[in-house]
Amino acid sequence: MSVAIDSAPTSPIKAGSGWDRFRLARNTFWTVLCVGCSFLTLVPLFSIVYLVVVNGLPLLSPNIFAQLPPAPGLEGGGFGNAVQGTVVMVGIGILFAAPLGILSAIYICEYNRRSSLAGTVRFIAKLLTGVPSIICGVFAFARVISRPLPAESPWPYLRCRPFCLPPNKLFWEFRTRFGKLRTEWERPGSRPFFA
Amino acid sequence: MPDTAAETPTGDDFRKRRFRFDLFLVLTWLASVATVIALVWIVWSILQAAFPAMAATGFSFFTNAVWNPNRNIYGIFPFLNGTAGSSGFALLLALPLGVAIAIFLSEDFLPSAIRQVVRFVVELLAAIPSVVYGLWGIAVIIPMVQSWGGFLSQKFGFLPIFAPPATGNSMLTASLVLALMVLPTITAISRTALVAVPKTLREGSYAVGATRWETIFKVLLPTAAPGIVAATILAFGRAMGETMAVAMLIGNSPRLTWSLLSPAGTLAGLLANQFGEASGMQVSALMYAALTLVLLTLLVNIAGELVLRHTQKTIAGIR
Predict the structure, then answer these.
(1) What is the greatest pairwise CA distance in chain A?
(2) What is the complex's ipTM, to 2 decimals?
(3) By Cβ atoms counted within 10 A, which residue in A122, B17, B49, B232 is the most buried?
(4) What is the 3-state secondary structure (H, E, C) of chain A?
């Protein structure tokens, strides 16, 4: 019969020789240091909470969540716009993300648990949580806000220029270059397909 | 023979059982593929936007120490240095603390209730928004660093890392706050690794007369070492990509410096500060910097995940 030992023996050594006493003292030293360090980390958290509460609590009122920021020099007001913006933005984000996330979770747990796609999705999802938020911002900037295709295209360097086009233009690019139908979409004097 | 023939699925069964059209399966499959495409699309879009700058600067982008949009000179060496320096120093601070907490949580020094409270509090640290850490850093850490940093630069100013211009916004400030921010990551993964060490190893060590800490240092930590290494790598990835708190605290200086006490800059901070007003080639150069950052974080995270997988296999082998 075996008995699982959950904790260290309370007195592992009969403290006899000096060496054994040293070992016990060393044991106690590390215990104190470890527990001390653990409680040390509670200090910053309480410091953060203290800072926020002491500076924020006196100003807390229902108005803060309802009113707009005051004009410079005026008292009162709030940040209702920011609250609303946060809620709406996060809500829309979840509306997009939740179905996708839940569906792919169902796929990797229910359908093809062992398939290579399930493994890949699991791995990629972990990587995505590690992608810095600023990168997502930059991505949105590149995709949504700006159309940064420069006048001097970088693509001749890779000799596969059309693939930097959005799909609809890519379609016409192929169609005008390869299709029988040549329409007014084809620019006169456009560059050859392989630069 | 007739029996076997009866059990073999006919063409009809085959069609019914195997190739029944399952709309839900298609939907879940599409969602899974979308997850993969999302990451590829992010990297691809940034790569595409970064091309003009890549063509213009090439590899000197990484080695050039001057970032001057007015003169169209773009080099990110100081920011690479700042990113690596602040993250590295943050890890140096957070690793011993994180492992100490992980040991505290996985041993029974104190009753389980108290350990649960500590665990909860450390996990709360991960839930605080980055910008609140930044505010806290400005209100609490910057004054501290100003007074201690002044002292350090007076006494030890001859050392390059304590070189004199001691400002509050510095690499040290950012590192201190970053250390706190990555602490939950290190603690959680290290604790999982320590808890996963088979009990038999611990019992064997006690049986030959080791004290608790001899067991921890000579048996538990070496066995859990790959997990702790994975925790460190993943925490490094987090620290590298951290934007808001660092941008508020590090001073965002494009100058190259060895000093912990003077302002520096990180890649994420550079992006956060300059994207608003950038135009033309600067946007492309920023995209190039973003590409560097995303590839570095992906590399670090992939390495961390692989080490973590290796750990799980090793532990399974011992048990």
Answers:
(1) 99
(2) 0.81
(3) B49
(4) CCCCCCCCCCCCCCCCCHHHHHHHHHHHHHHHHHHHHHHHCHHHHHHHHHHHHHHHHHHCCHHHHHCCCCCCCCCCCCCHHHHHHHHHHHHHHHHHHHHHHHHHHHHHHHHCCCCHHHHHHHHHHHHHHHCCHHHHHHHHHHHHHCCCCCCCCCHHHCCCHHHHCCHHHHHHHHHHHHCCCCCCCCCCCCCCCCC
Residues B21-37: tens digit of each pLDDT: 778 888 888 999 999 99
Residue whose entry in the numeric block shows the structure tokens 């200086």: B253
Indicate the residue type of B104. F
For chain A, the domains span 17-60, 77-145, 153-195
Which of A119-123, B156-160, B274-278 is least confident? B156-160
**Residue A161 pLDDT more than 60?**
no
Contacts of A173 by beta carbon, 8 Å cutoff, 6+ apart: A162, A165
CA distance A57 to A51: 10
Contact criterion met (CB < 8 Å) for A124 and B268:
no
Say if residue A11's pLDDT is above 80.
no
- The H-assigned helical ranges of chain B are 2-7, 11-17, 23-57, 60-63, 77-106, 112-127, 130-136, 142-156, 171-195, 199-207, 212-215, 221-241, 244-249, 267-274, 281-318
The verdict on a CB contact (< 8 Å) between A142 and B49 is: yes
3-state DSSP of A61-104: CHHHHHCCCCCCCCCCCCCHHHHHHHHHHHHHHHHHHHHHHHHH
Name every chain A residue with its beta carbon within 8 A of the beta carbon of B211.
8, 12-13, 23-24, 26-27
Which domains does chain B carry?
46-318 (1.10.3720.10)
Q: What is the mean pLDDT of residues B293-300?
A: 94
For residue A5, which amino acid is it? I
Bridge partners (DSSP) listed for residue B68:
B73
Could you tell me which of B204, B214, B200 has the C-alpha nearest to residue A13? B214
Provide the percentage of residues in chain B whose pLDDT is more than 70.
92
Residue B243 touches chain A, beta carbons under 8 Å = yes
Please indicate whether residue B232 or residue B167 has the higher confidence score (pLDDT).
Answer: B232
Among candidates B100, B183, B203 on the partner chain, residue whose Cβ is nearest the Cβ of A5: B203
Output the pLDDT for position A23.
87
| This prediction's pTM | 0.79
Residue of A134, A143, A155 to mutate when probing chain B, most B C-beta within 10 A = A134
pLDDT at B107 over 70: yes
Which of chain A's residues have a Cβ under 8 Å away from the Cβ of B286? 138
Which has more pLDDT, A39 or B1? A39
